[in-house]
Structures are given as C-alpha cells and as structure tokens.
Design a protein that fits this description.
- This is F-box domain-containing protein.
- InterPro entries: F-box-like_dom_sf, F-box_dom, LRR_dom_sf.
- It comes from Paramarasmius palmivorus.
- Helix 6 links the parallel strand 2 and strand 3.
- The relative contact order is 0.05.
- The longest helix is centred in the N-terminal third of the chain and has 36 residues.
- The chain is built from 14 helices and 20 strands.
- The termini are far apart.
- The radius of gyration is 33 Å and the shape is extended.
- The chain has 568 residues and is of the alpha/beta class.
- Helix 4 runs parallel beside helix 5.
C-alpha cells in the first residue's frame, strides 16, 4: 500500500509540474505576442496588412503545423501565430482561404469555415484520397455557389465521380470547370448537374465524361470561350447526334477554342439544318473518323485564319480503293482550311511531313503561314507546339488507317499534297525513320519551288532526297529570238541555302555523305551554294568527320555544325 501511495504521489507531483510548465509556456507565448505587437510592421493599417497576407497566399502553400516537427512551421498559415493583431487581421480576411487543400482534410475544413463567402478556387485530386478527404469534399458542395474555378480530377476514385454526379447546386460565378472522369468508366452528368445553371462559364474541359447534351446549362453559355471534350477510344457513352451537337455549338457565340475528341457524330451527312456560325473561333481540333470529321466541318462556319487540327483521325476503309476515296474527300476540304494562294500576306511558309510521335499516326502533316500564330493555349490542351518556332500550325493533320491495307506512305502523301498552296513555301521539315517517300515526291512537289530556303530531313528518308540536291532542272527551250542567249541550267531546289540532317546513319550508308558533298560542289558551281549544314544525332565515322571538315575548309559548305555524333 505504501508503494501505491508513493506512486500516486509521484504522478500527482508530475502532473502539477506539467501544469506549471504549460502555464509558463502560455505566459511566454503571451509575452512574445506582446513583443511582436510593438514591431514597426504593426503600424501598418489593417487593410495593408490584409493585402500583404493575401500576397503570401500566392507564394506559399499552407501546411498543417506539426509541433513535433518545427520544419513544418512554414507557409502563410503561420501568420496567424505571430500576434493577436495579425491573427485578428488574418481571420478577418476571407480571401486568404480561397484555395482549400483537400489532401489535408482538417485544414481544408477549417479553410472553408474561415473563407465564409469568399470566391473559391478549388482543385480536387482523387488519387490517394482518404475517407476523411471525401467527407470534406461533400462539405465543400455547400460552397459551389461561390466557386469561380473548379478542377475535379477523379483519377480512378469512383466515389468522387459518384459525389460529382449528385451536384445540383447552381454555380452563378463559376468561370472554369475542368472534370476528369474515369478512364474505362466514363459517365454522363445529368440535366440537373449544377442545377442547369452556370451562366458565367468561360472554360469547360471534360475528359472521360460529358454533360447531358440536353442539359439547360448549354443554353446559357454566352461567355464560353473554350470547350474541350475528350472521350476514350472505346467509349461506351452514346455519342451526340449532329443535331444535338450543333444545337449546343449554336449557343456558344463567344467560342474561341473548340476541341472534340472522339465525340464526332456519325450522322452529320444527313443533317439538313443551317450551318453553325462561330465568328470568333481561332482554334479547332477534331478527332474521329476522317469522313465524320469532314462531314461535321461542312456544318460549321468559322474565320478563314482559324487553326484547324485533325487529331488522330482514322479511316475506316478496308481496301486501298476505299482509303483513297476517303483521302480524295478529305483533300477536297483542305483548300477551305489553307490560305488562298493569292494571299501573299498570309502565305503558306512552313511544312512538316512524317511521324513526330511514335505509334500514334501513320502520317502527320502540319502547315504554318507567314502570319505566325503565337496565341498560347494556357487554358486547355488544344493544338500542338511543334518544331516550327513554337507557333501553332495553321493546319495539322494526324491520319491513320488499318495496318492490313497495303498502301505506301508516298501514295498517301501524293494524294494530299496537290491541295496545298506550296509555291510560297520557305521551310520543309521531313521526318521518317526508314524511307517512306520516293525521289518522285520530292522532285514533283518541292524541287522547283522558288522560295524553299531550308530543308530539314530526319531519319532514313534522307536517302530519298539527297540525290536531288545536285541535280539540275531541264533548261527551257530557247525561243527563236533568243538563239544567241546562253542558258546555264539551274539546280533543283533553286533557293535552297540551309540543310538540317538528323538521325541518319552515314557510317552504314557512305553514299549519303558522298551525294551530299557532290551536290554541294555542283550547286557552288551553278552559283546556288549551300550556306549552312547542321548534322545532329547522326552516326559518322572519324573519316567522314574529317571529310566534312575539309568541305568547310574548301568553302563549298561555308557553315557546318555537327553535334551529338553517335557511334556504332
């Protein structure tokens, strides 16, 4: 018993000491706060302090304070712990709490409470979500009516998609809505989503989900400037009819960027209504079958300088004849999407042909005009930034067809190129790993262009082009009045000055280098010298490198750059 009393007395004394320590710490904190209150910064008015705090929220991520880990005492939330006045000002500035962090449920809940009715900027990531986070998300749903930006990424979390499907509250000040559904488990948001009211939306980005095409929400989007809808290739969602889709587009009079990926209706050919006019559209991206995309375009009117992208469009043809029928129909549409040959102020200037991304397309063709479109697409993933000066192509084609169809890439290219106004072309970039084009394509479409100054060739296709560099055009027949005028034959590619070569195995194909140097010498003699050659990522032997340096020394290749040389 004595031992028991001794233990109880010891615990009592320890508790008493702990209590005194806690009281002393409170006194220390009180005095530190008092001391901080005399700092010069506290002479600032509350309004100025509030603005300072607000700027802190844009530069620091709030984190939960962990007393056991002082390194976690960072971020603007520590502002509330400096002194009473700072805490009072911070708590009286709801805008500090406009970005709740749902990865920390207790913090998000507190921020929602402190934020009151301040406009919210919400991002919800479904990955690694816990049940507590989901509880706070459901708490957030009461605040949708004062949300300006909402990014909702399900990322495999089915519960998040279920919660989203139940949202019925209108969003009167919502401007940006970005929803990423479930890949392989796509869903449709009903007519009642957001109460059918989000009148101030400017950006709507839906991936692996759609809003019902009959939703009243589409009747109010007068301010929408960007619409992007992206479904899975094997989507189970019923696609809209042409009438439904065009009825939606008809209400989007302010639309500037439109991306429809695998939501192209298959009955556009039968639509008999008036074309939809999108007077401010500057970027259009379509993905579907070639014919469906072409037929839909027949019912949409947009400015002549709109940048158009056919993103991974596939032919459903089963025979070569059917494929070339699709290509012929496609080629008939291209002049509408390309600059007029007589428009010298907006002429076709750059062209890319080949494969730029692995395993995605059988052929890519991209065209740029002299009016370089530098409109950056910060708001949505529409358009591509390609090799050509980081500007958006005027026209971008990504075409594919069934592997069982026996056609040559060269034949497909020759079916499309006649629709391009090539006379003004200044830069040609060709990329293909192992041939793909014949000399006939280069000779027929490019070798006589008067303004083609630069040619960049990547891959084995270089072997189909290099033999033409030193060849000459057939001299025109002299007229009787010009019998005494001597005519020196002009080389093919008469304006060519710059050649770029990439990913070519010169060591295994010594004839490539011989043809290049012989062509440069020949052109030099005709007064049309090559000014510069850039060789990048190619395989070269030491002997070949020495030969190239000698060519520069002798002057028939004035500028030579060799970088990232590979070795077998």
């Amino acid at each position: 018993m004595d031992g028991e009393h001794t233990a109880l007395g010891w615990r009592s004394q320890m508790q008493e000491i702990d209590q005194k320590i806690a009281e002393d710490l409170d006194i220390i904190r009180e005095r530190k706060s008092l001391r901080n209150s005399f700092a010069p910064v506290n002479s600032l008015p509350n309004e100025v302090l509030s603005q300072i705090f607000y700027h802190c929220t844009t530069g620091y991520t709030p984190v939960l304070t962990d007393p056991e880990d002082q390194w976690k005492r960072v971020g603007w939330i520590s502002l509330t712990q400096v002194c009473r006045r700072w805490r009072s000002v911070a708590l009286g500035t709801p805008s500090l709490y406009h970005t709740p962090d749902f990865e920390h449920p207790s913090l998000a809940s507190e921020m929602l409470r402190r934020g009151k009715r301040t406009p919210l900027d919400i991002t919800i990531y479904g990955r690694y979500f816990e049940d507590k986070s989901l509880d706070v998300v459901e708490q957030y749903l009461d605040h949708i009516d004062h949300t300006t930006n909402l990014v909702w990424l399900c990322q495999g979390n089915e519960k998040l998609s279920e919660v989203l499907s139940e949202v019925r509250c209108p969003a009167p000040i919502l401007r940006t809505l970005n929803i990423e559904g479930l890949e392989g488990g796509e869903f449709i948001l009903s007519d009642e989503f957001l109460g059918g009211k989000a009148p101030n939306l400017t950006h709507l980005d839906l991936e692996f989900c759609v809003i019902s095409w009959t939703s009243p929400i589409f009747n109010q989007l007068r301010h929408l400037t960007c619409l992007s809808i992206d479904l899975d290739a094997e989507t189970s969602i019923e696609l809209p009819t042409a009438e439904e889709l065009l009825a939606v587009l008809a209400n989007l009079l302010s639309l500037r960027k439109l991306r429809l990926k695998r939501v192209i209706p298959s009955d556009s050919e039968n639509f008999t209504g008036e074309p939809v006019h999108l007077p401010y559209l500057n970027t259009l991206s379509l993905s579907g079958t070639i014919l469906d995309c072409v037929e839909l375009l027949e019912h949409i009117a947009f400015p002549k300088d709109t940048s158009v992208e056919f993103d991974y469009c596939k032919s459903e043809a089963e025979t070569p004849q059917e494929l070339f029928g699709d290509l012929e129909r496609f080629a008939q549409t291209l002049p509408r999407l390309l600059p007029d040959p007589m428009d010298t102020m907006n002429a076709l200037e750059g062209l890319f042909m080949g494969i730029e991304a692995l395993f995605l397309d059988d052929l890519e063709i991209k065209a740029w005009t002299s009016q370089k479109d530098v409109r950056k697409l910060h708001c949505c993933p529409i358009g591509n930034y390609m090799w050509y000066s980081n500007v958006i192509p005027r026209l971008s084609l990504g075409l594919s067809w069934d592997d069982e169809i026996s056609v040559k890439l060269d034949e497909v290219v020759q079916a499309l190129l006649p629709s391009f106004p090539l006379q003004s072309l200044q830069t040609l970039h060709v990329r293909y790993g192992c041939g793909g084009y014949t000399e006939d394509t280069f000779s027929r479409f490019f070798s006589r262009l008067p303004n083609l100054v630069e040619v960049d060739v990547w891959g084995g296709v270089f072997g189909d082009l290099v033999g033409l560099i030193g060849q000459t055009m057939t001299p025109p027949t002299s007229s009787p009045d010009a019998e005494n005028i001597s005519q020196r034959p002009a080389p093919l590619f008469p304006a060519l000055q710059h050649i770029g070569i990439g990913e070519v195995d010169f060591e295994s194909n010594d004839a490539f280098l011989t043809s290049l140097l012989d062509g440069a010498k020949t052109r030099n003699g005709y007064g049309s010298p090559i000014q510069s050659v850039i060789i990048a990522g190619c395989t070269l032997s030491k002997r070949q490198l020495t030969t190239l340096k000698a060519a520069m020394t002798e002057g028939y290749i004035p500028s030579l750059v060799v970088r990232q040389v590979k070795k077998n």
